[in-house]
Specification:
The protein is built from 17 helices and 20 strands. The chain is α/β, with parallel strands linked by helices. The protein has two domains: 234 residues, P-loop containing nucleotide triphosphate hydrolases (Rossmann fold); 240 residues, Rossmann fold. The structure holds adenosine-5'-triphosphate and magnesium ion. Magnesium ion binds next to α1.
């Protein structure tokens, strides 16, 4: 079969970074090609060049035999190349049907909009995807998974021959991931090709017809899934073997840092009681809506409980604002990190050091030259931020590297109690292991960590103990032998 898309010798340089270096790939109709590579290896840059959002410096993009020096977004769409951006570019105030049929209706009659035709189009394309959505609902009111499905459906209303998805699952709850992968299978059956980027290597093995591995902007090689396993793929991506140790359990005699006693908040969670001891990494597992994130927000003063007690170091503590929480030694790194404090134009150094200014300031409010850079520099190494310079603006980093900067910024404060909500979403396997190590070190020094995660593997490896929440209550506690990914996955799924 002739190639649908061929990319030849594609290169792109940003000031000091060779983001792509003579990359070749080819995609046939109906093929699912997965692009794997560490944070900053050039995956998004490659996707952007194919969709016309970036111009390559050299090389060629060949679409159905015709050669282009560069694409522009309108032209790429006309040719049948559609991309699903992470922000999904939907219209939250329009209905599901209006969102999906948007382009189709506009194309038919720019002056007169036939919304009933819209419902028909939306229904048809959703059925073809094996998906169901309430057509009348305001799209902005639906879950991220539902909004994403609508965005995919909209892409298909245009003549779509190649669908590009850059990390579609990094913000998607586990239950929705299966649904997304099933949709990708249907696209393949219809002869639509898919370029798929993800750091969750397991799911890549579920859908890939072929892997293309990038490292530092270069193509390492292409592989059939049968040739590889997760370990070998990791090695190809990072050039290193990744070893992960389990965190040792903590004795019941360790001092209690935080005690939560029958904490409740109407409609969200009820009777939540647990203790967090020094040295513990306490996992919180559960589906979206189980109440995990809501409990975490309450501990950080952002979602006041309406009953129960919070005790820090044995003393009853009222936490009604993040300021109270920080004063009590509690820091939360929320899942929504983008909004939580990257200063895009400021340097990486400034971003990381901003959280510790108070600690490094002298009595006169002065910061000794170099201190800032030393602190930031050591964190850049520890979490492996890939950048040409620590003085580069944060916005020049790849998505995963920006995540690392926000994490580093909060880790640097060395809080007594650290709450992490899905800290490694969008972070590559190598850096993930590094972050687990840092969390373990922090606990080893007598801090306490609460780790919310959708990845059972991550919970089983990093936690000393894990609680499973369902519909606002704690329904299970795993420790010791019982704390395995398999077991957590069973409990989370079966309890719902
Ligand atoms: N606008 C930009 N200005 C300067 N450098 C950039 C810019 N965009 C990307 N880069 C650099 O190009 C390299 C590749 O970035 P890219 O976003 O393609 O990585 P990625 O593989 O998608 O990583 P991630 O897994 O973190 O999303 C990175 O080192 C990044 O810092
Ligand atoms: Mg990227």
């Amino acid at each position: 079969m002739p190639d649908l898309l061929r990319v030849e010798g594609l290169s792109k340089r940003y000031i000091a970074t060779q983001a792509l270096d003579a990359v070749d790939i080819a995609v046939k109709p109906g093929e699912v090609v997965c692009i794997a590579g560490a944070n900053g290896s050039g995956k998004s840059t490659l996707m952007k060049c194919i969709c016309g959002a970036e111009s390559p410096d050299s090389g060629r993009i060949i679409w159905l035999g015709k050669s282009y020096r560069r694409m522009n977004p309108a032209q790429a769409m006309r040719l049948g190349i559609q991309i699903i951006y992470q922000d999904l570019s939907i219209f939250p105030d329009l209905s599901v049907a209006e969102n999906i049929a948007f382009h189709a209706i506009q194309a038919h009659s720019p002056l007169w909009v036939d919304w009933s035709a819209g419902e028909r189009i939306a229904e048809e394309v959703l059925t073809s995807l094996g998906a169901r959505l309430p057509l009348d609902a305001r799209l902005g009111d639906l879950s991220f998974g539902a909004r994403q499905t609508a965005a995919i459906a909209r892409a298909l209303t245009q003549d779509c021959r190649l669908l590009v998805m850059d990390e579609p699952t990094s913000a998607l709850p586990a239950a929705d991931v299966e649904r997304l992968l099933a949709m990708v299978q249907r696209l393949r059956q219809r002869g639509i090709a898919v370029l798929f980027v993800s750091h969750k290597l397991d799911e890549l093995f579920e859908i890939a017809d072929r892997f293309c591995v990038l490292r530092d902007g270069r193509k390492v090689g292409e592989y059939a899934p049968a040739e590889l396993d997760v370990k070998q793929l990791t090695f190809l991506m990072t050039g290193a073997e990744i070893h992960s140790d389990r965190t040792a359990p903590v004795p019941d005699t360790a001092p209690v840092l935080l005690e939560v006693n029958r904490l409740s908040r109407g409609g969200q969670y009820r009777d939540i009681s647990f203790r967090l001891r020094a040295g513990e990494v306490l996992g919180l597992a559960g589906l979206t809506g189980s109440g995990r994130t809501e409990v975490a927000l309450s501990l950080f003063g952002l979602n006041p409980p309406d009953g129960g007690l919070i005790l820090v170091d044995g003393r009853e503590t009222r936490i009604t604002s993040p300021r109270d929480a920080v004063a009590a030694g509690i820091v939360l790194v929320s899942e929504d990190r983008a909004s939580q404090g990257i200063f895009p134009r400021k340097s990486i150094t400034m971003n990381i050091a901003s959280s510790v200014y108070r600690r490094i300031q002298s009595a006169l409010g002065l910061i000794a030259p170099g201190v800032e850079r030393d602190i930031a520099g050591s964190w850049i190494d520890r979490v492996r931020v890939k950048t040409a310079s620590s003085e580069a603006p944060a916005q020049s980093l790849s998505g995963g590297n920006q995540q690392k900067v926000v994490l580093a910024k909060w880790l640097a404060t060395e809080p007594k109690i650290l709450i992490l909500d899905n800290p490694t979403a969008g972070i590559d396997v190598g850096s993930k292991a590094e972050i687990h190590e840092i969390v373990r070190d922090l606990a080893g020094q007598g801090h306490g960590v609460i780790l919310i995660s959708d990845e059972f593997e991550e919970l089983a490896l990093s936690c000393t103990r894990a609680l499973v929440m369902q519909r606002g209550r704690i329904v299970h506690e795993s420790r010791g032998e019982d704390l395995t990914a398999q077991r957590l996955s069973e409990v989370v799924r079966q309890t719902d």
